[in-house]
Design goal:
There is one protein chain. The chain has 2 domains: 149 residues, no CATH class; 126 residues, no CATH class. By secondary structure, it is mainly alpha-helical. Helix 1 packs antiparallel against helix 2, helix 1 packs antiparallel against helix 9 and helix 3 runs antiparallel to helix 9. The chain is elongated. Strand 5 and strand 6 form a beta hairpin. It has 9 helices and 6 strands; from the N terminus they run H-H-H-E-E-H-H-E-E-H-H-E-E-H-H.
């Protein structure tokens, strides 16, 4: 059949996309470049997000450190339990250092630094989670008991968890705590005076007024005898025995000596634990918020590390990338 001659009865399909020679290759290259550009933006976006989240984690670790320092200040002035603030301070400082590691690894796309960062972050998250569980477990029990006709609560050592109770039951350890309470003048704020309308002289407040006061747990447990002892009120830290025998060892331990008072009473130990419980619950709220943030940062870090590994190992992102014969072992 001669060239250009049409075959009768055969229809030639129309060409919807006429492509000139060489345009197909240029089109494929253009598509590949667009894919590579999109993937590069994705990598930069994940690393930028990791850097920003670690910067936020660094900032949030500051309140945790402040909470640990606050507990330390209360230990010196109020609670007198000096060992409980150190885990919080150590975790806060560690989070600061690790956040800087993650920030540097994300900015410079250093996969080895991101790998070390992820290892360290995993252990910090586990440690913080364990500390939160421990704090709630040991402070779950123990609350003040209401007394009829009294505005304040009273505290029993038997109401608290065994671990904390064992700490304050240790005579050597409690001697340090009671000395701290005396040196901190824990009962010095108890005294209140009213002016006698007849003489105009300041006198201690009446028993009825004292009974309606809102005392702190340490003031209630350490600065007065338990209500069950039946002592007669003279002033806030001076009471006289009613003469009725009560089967309570704290009634025997109470003394009007202003350097002793009820510092050796079980009610005082319970009051210290109640104050500690209140402080720990406040700090635990901050720790829970920090834990959630660290988990989010850790997930972002895993994604950023994977992208950094792809860049370092030339692993396939699209049609224009070659794949190494031995790709990364670490896949997240």
């Amino acid at each position: 059949m001669a060239e250009g001659q049409k075959v009768v009865g055969v229809k030639t399909p129309p060409c919807f996309f006429p492509i000139k020679p060489g345009e197909a290759e240029r089109l494929l290259v253009s598509v590949a470049l667009q894919i590579q550009l999109a993937e590069t933006k994705m990598i930069r976006g994940s690393t930028s997000l990791l850097g920003a989240s670690n910067f936020v984690a660094f900032l949030v670790s500051i309140p945790i450190l402040a909470g640990g320092i606050w507990l330390g200040a209360r230990a010196n002035n109020t609670d007198c339990l000096r060992f409980l603030q150190w885990p919080i301070i150590i975790i806060a400082v560690t989070v600061m250092v690790i956040s800087l590691m993650g920030f540097a690894g994300a900015c410079y796309r250093l996969s080895w630094l991101l790998q070390a960062y992820l290892f360290a972050m995993f252990f910090v998250v586990a440690a913080l989670l364990g500390f939160i569980i421990f704090a709630f477990a040991v402070t779950d029990r123990g609350r003040g008991q209401a007394v009829v006709g009294r505005g304040y609560l009273e505290y029993q050592l038997s109401d608290y968890s065994g671990w904390l109770r064992d700490r304050v039951d240790d005579p050597r350890y409690w001697e340090k705590i009671s000395s701290c309470l005396r040196e901190g003048r824990a009962c010095s704020g108890m005294a209140r005076y009213d002016r006698d309308p007849t003489t105009g002289v300041s006198v201690p407040e009446s028993a009825d007024m004292f009974y309606q006061r809102q005392l702190t747990s340490i003031e209630s447990g350490c600065c007065k005898p338990p209500t069950s002892c039946g002592y007669n009120y003279v002033n806030e830290t001076f009471w006289t025995q009613a003469g009725v025998a009560v089967d309570d060892s704290d009634c025997v331990r109470w003394t009007n000596d202003q350097q002793q008072l009820c510092y050796q009473c079980d009610s005082c130990k319970a009051g210290v634990l109640a104050s500690l419980r209140h402080s720990w619950r406040k700090v635990s709220v901050i720790n829970i918020v920090m834990l959630i943030l660290l988990i989010v940062v850790y997930v972002i870090g895993c994604a950023a590390y994977r992208n950094a590994q792809k860049v370092n190992n030339n692993e396939a992102f699209g049609v224009n990338r070659m794949t190494k014969s031995r790709p990364s072992r670490f896949q997240f």
